[in-house]
């Protein structure tokens, strides 16, 4: 079985979520949700992985209103969270506000949501943005919704650990500070990634390839996880099934 | 029904601050057109903690001076067109926040204290842009800086829930941010799907999720009053209508045409 690019991303996310007890994903984040659902399925016999999907009624066990997620993070009960970003820079600063000079920006995005708090309080924040281009991965963000690093005297149990795009996986070192290219997804190359990245990063001369999932993981993903996902993200799941239907018959008949 | 909604809207006066809930908590969309027809402008909106369709429409109608919010968007239907346009043109002042900071400000008001400390924020441009937010040294521990958020005291909170009883108690279920809004606001106006004859406080099951009438100034019946948003436990969001609005409101003219239609659920 050959994995689709999005399946490799989802399995990479599940890998980044090893050992989590409680992970939260944003309202319109089907791939992080799929990665978390896969983690939950893989760990089923060993631990209970709790998944909170913001704004979802089914995948939301909170009873104290929208403040409870943040309170639980402040208490150290939220292990992992995903953050996107209109712009992300080499210091892992995230911009969710807009392009240009604040406040009258030429492009205005919705706003910072909970980033300026969760980026500090959640130990494992995974930056996830499919678009890997110089307009997203910039040298310096136009507005810091949430800073990637903090001065030593700032209370900060949390922060970024990784950046995952459609082309590559990076780790983030808050001490150096900066990103390091961990692996290149199949079909992409180091020169292409350097070209598409607006900031400099550490890398091996020949970076490893992002691993593809094994057959057991892939069948769990296409079975149980895809079924679970379709309850919350029906459009995304349906498109995934269509793409599988297009690619699988050829492989199966070969 | 329309008469009652008009009566509620008439309590809003120019220059007031309004607290409005996040799209999934119970937005009183039924109040949006009555507020626009009433026409009290120069409003300051507090989004708890983010805004959407209602905020975009009040901005599009020219009633808004400023918005304190962690985000404004139409969710799956995309960006909020009238909000984005007003920001670009400098037509409104945005006080950019982060979700727990808005909760902290309301919590301070709920407790009757001047501010609430909160973690995070330090080093962000959100904090740098907010002259009203401060960073202090933790007085209990040296070498620990912490941000403080002043109490937020909205003049009026407006939201929509499934039911109220004859005594004016309203059932908010687990949407506790609606209670936080009501505690902090001077007045609270609630629209409901239905008014029930039994007391919500008489049964422990409903009493736990009930906001007592002490905090509620007016209630009006408005079936499907959150539409096109959904209401928890009642009905789902009408995504097609959200998209129809998002498309229409890309221009001021399209927005005006949309708002002129007598839409109903």
Automatic annotation (TrEMBL), chain A:
The superkingdom listed in its UniProt entry is Bacteria
InterPro entries in UniProt: CoA_trans_fam_I, NagB/RpiA_transferase-like
**How is this protein named in the record?**
CoA synthetase
Origin organism of this chain? Paracoccus maritimus
Automatic annotation (TrEMBL), chain B:
Q: Which domain of life is it from?
A: Bacteria
Q: Name one Pfam family in it.
A: CoA_trans
Gene3D superfamilies documented for this protein: 3.30.30.40, Glutaconate Coenzyme A-transferase (3.40.1080.10)
Name assigned to this protein: CoA synthetase
